[in-house]
Amino acid sequence: MFAPNLFSGQVLFIGAHPDDIEIGAGGTVAKFVENKCDVWLCILSSEPNIELSEVRRSEAITAANALGLSGEKIIFAEFEDGKVVDNAKSVSKMRNIFKTHKIDPDIIFTHTSADSHNDHRSAYGLTIAVFRNKPILAYPVVNSHLTSKFHPSILIDIEETLKKKMRAIKLHKSQSNRLSETRIVEFCTLFSEQFGLSMAEPFELVVQAGAEKNLDIVLRLNDSPFNSFWYNLIRDEKLLVIHAHVVVRKNKNWDHPHGPDIEAINLIQQSFADMWRIHPAPLQHCSCDDPPLEGLLGKNHILLTGGAVSNSISLKYFNRFKGLRYVIDYTMPDYEEIYIVDRKQTKKIRSEYYTDKFDRILPKIDYGILTIMKNPFNKSKYLVGCMGIHRFGTLGCYEFLLKQRYLNELLDCVQHLLKNDGFQIIIEYNNIENKASLIPKSLHKIPSV
User: Fold this and answer.
1) pLDDT of residue 248
2) Closest Cα to residue 126, out of 98, 94, 99, 83?
3) Across residues 314-331, what is the average pLDDT?
4) Rounded distance, CA 393 to CA 261, Å?
5) How far apart are CA 202 and CA 175, in angstroms?
6) Residues facing 348 on adjacent strands
7) pLDDT in tens, 95-147
8) What's the CA gap between 268 and 276, in Å, rounded?
9) What Rg do the C-alpha atoms of the chain give, in angstroms?
10) How many beta carbons lie within 10 A of that of residue 405, not counting itself?
11) What is the C-alpha to C-alpha distance for residues 7 and 218, in angstroms, rounded to an integer?
12) Residue 113 and residue 137 in contact, taking contact as beta carbons nearer than 8 Å
């Protein structure tokens, strides 16, 4: 299911000043070099003072060497420091430079426009004007970025290349008074933690008309758990979310508010709004009672919410698919008992209950079945199932699919099955602590047929 994160094409990094690329994307440069990509650096400006200009040029070459690049892979555009502009003359100059060097990159990295430095903003404007049909990843420079306006969606893990990045930054000795190693590391850490990584460089994704052909390459670079999972699962296709309906029971030995079900729906909506950067958004929603639903099952990737009690599609189809170990079942005539059936061990998994201060009987420990498999109606699509005994178990499944830290844990557990096969795994949800947990020993492989 998952493609390698890096590729072997041509990559261009553009910086307004000799140290900008190292500060904003040095770890990523080193990572591409290690992956044998054709990597080029372009430094737009030089100091008006000739002596200082030579010093900074020498530092740039030495720093590039520390990242694994030779001096021949650096282009010095020779705009004057502080006077980089993105007008027609500059665009023409840059296009001629890149044509001379036979540079036609698959991906371009440049400054974000969310920056207080005029050269940095001009570098951004110049880049999008020169490369109008290319995807662009925009990096921040810690000293001048605008925190309120920089919104990254692509994170590239640099844990293994961080030392090279910091070594390259140190080689810009003439700038040592303004480069704080601590601030640079803290900056990377801040965004990394937000995306569920330990050390990564953040980038905004800029998609211009005509860039769609290379968009797949860019999105494969994203090391955030959310994108590593969802993009590689559904690409730019639709995900049809089939919601359960409320089941009214005359007699029941438990009670709970509808909050967890609403929370699960809100979680998927918010997660894709925050993290998905392909437009239009992939989500389509419908109820299991919407007609004619059967005709859509083979046309889309499916996210099926709720088991056989609350979702008629789960009852009619899911429980009869081949290769499943776990399904939701119940007793009749009034759903007196709902449980997970483990077909392999011929046993039932039941929720645990407690009585709250209002004398309501609530699930204390609920369980859900998380399923990912090839869609039986169309093997080129996937079916994802989030099915709890009650709504808390369903919410736990959603959390492992949508929250970064949970996704990391899930991917570590099931990575070996995702390339060709599907899986089922039981999620435990502690309603007292509002905490979801994997049960690794429950992992079941669903072979591709």
Assistant:
1) 54
2) 94
3) 94
4) 10
5) 23
6) 341
7) 999 999 999 999 999 999 999 999 999 999 999 999 988 889 999 999 898 98
8) 11
9) 26
10) 12
11) 9
12) no
Give the pLDDT confidence of 277-300 residue by residue, as tens digits. 666 778 999 988 887 788 899 999
Selected residue with higher pLDDT from 439 and 334:
439
Torsion of CA 167, 169, 172, 177, to 10 degrees: -120
pTM of the model: 0.76
How far is it, in rounded angstroms, from Cα 107 to Cα 91?
18
> Which residues are CB-contacts of 183 (< 8 A; sequence separation ≥ 6)?
142
| CB contact at 8 A, 305 and 243 | yes
Q: Compute the Cα dihedral for 331, 334, 337, 343 and give only its sign.
A: positive
For 340, the token pair is 């997970």
Q: 209-212 contacts: CB < 8 A, separation 24 or more?
A: 209/132, 209/133, 210/132, 210/133, 210/134, 211/133, 211/134, 211/135, 211/136
d(CA 245, CA 126) in angstroms, rounded, equals: 53
CA 4-154-145 angle, to 5 degrees, is 145
Is the bond leading into 282 cis (omega within 30 degrees of zero)?
A: no
Q: Which of 82-91, 259-268, 393-402 comes out lowest in average pLDDT?
A: 259-268
Angle between helix axes 162-170 and 20-34 (nearest 10 degrees) is 140
Neighbours of 435 (CB within 10 A): 11
Beta-strand relationship, 422-430 and 154-157: unpaired
* Side-chain-facing half-sphere of 20: CA atoms under 13 Å: 30
8 A C-beta contact, residue 427 and residue 436: yes
Spell out a b/e string for 233-248, using b for 16 or more CB atoms within 10 Å of the CB, else e: bbeeebbbbbbbeeee
pLDDT tens digits for range 215-253: 777 877 888 888 878 888 887 789 999 998 766 555 554
Residue 407 has pLDDT above 60, yes or no: yes
Residue 428 CB contacts under 8 Å (≥ 6 apart), including other chains:
365, 366, 367, 396, 436, 437, 438, 439
